[in-house]
Amino acid sequence: MPPSFVFCDVLEMNEVTISWKRVYSTFPETDNLSDSRGWTRKEIQKMLKFVKGPIDRAIILVAASSGIRIGAFDLDWQDLVPIYKVDQELRSEITENEIEKAKVVCAMLKVYKGTNSAYPAFITPEAYLALLDYKSEWIREVGREPKPQDPIFKKEGPFPRKATDVSVKKRLERILKNAELRKPLARGKRRYEVPIMNGFRRFWNKTCKESVSNDSALGALIKKEFMMGHAGLIKLDKNYFKTHALELAEEYLNAVPNLTISEEERAKAEVVRLRKENAKFGKGVTELESKVSRADAKVNRLLKAMSEFEPKYAEILDIKKSGPY
Length: 325
Fold this sequence. Notes:
Layout: H1 3-13, H2 20-25, H3 41-48, H4 54-66, E1 80-86, E2 89-91, E3 103-111, E4 119-123, H5 125-142, H6 165-178, H7 196-210, H8 217-226, H9 237-240, H10 245-253, H11 256-259, H12 263-322
């Protein structure tokens, strides 16, 4: 057993007050084996067919599109920040005048806020809409709008009591069992092929790493590691590679079509991506045409200057020929 685990056990036995939830959420999962794999998109699509309400759907889509650990589901409504695109610019805040032309392109989760492990995770528009659907159910159960400090994921009932990691995992276990994605273990095996929560994290990691980026290969890789809550490729990346949350969001948008689970939503995300590429291509063509136009104008000015100079040059030649040389 690693020394860190032993040390934690000693503190717990001596009733030392520590936020164990934060500590344990950073530990590798017990079923996290090197020969295991992540969930596939088809498997996640199958899970969504066996949800029993908006909360189940929201949990699955948030897990798949953010890659957060089970401990990171300890979120308040103030930790959810929509990211808008206004006139090709990403914003986390908009004015009333910009509401009509602003579009939510993803959303940010303030994971482990207030701790040294805090980092910004992101979810797709599909997952954000699932959270808004669940918010409507949240309001019906509690009888009021959620306050900023109220938990996003709560226990069933009229009181906004935070759902535990265990309850979130049990919901997923039920869904996996009904979807027949969690078959009994074969004799002699102690772990499943796909870890429940880490399976979503591996799906996120593989999908993002395979998505094409506009950044350099190294820069994109470091940003993707940041979005998983890692320090970077090396420990110094956290100190020397400072990245604004909106820059991470820009990188995340490259993976949104691939992280979207619903085929309908995937088609919408692909249309957005193609429009973005076409806009870039169109801008490039416009810039090229502008350069050609400027070059043509310059050539015309030179031709005009040459035509005006020719008579003067001929006159100079005539003078030289008639002179005493």
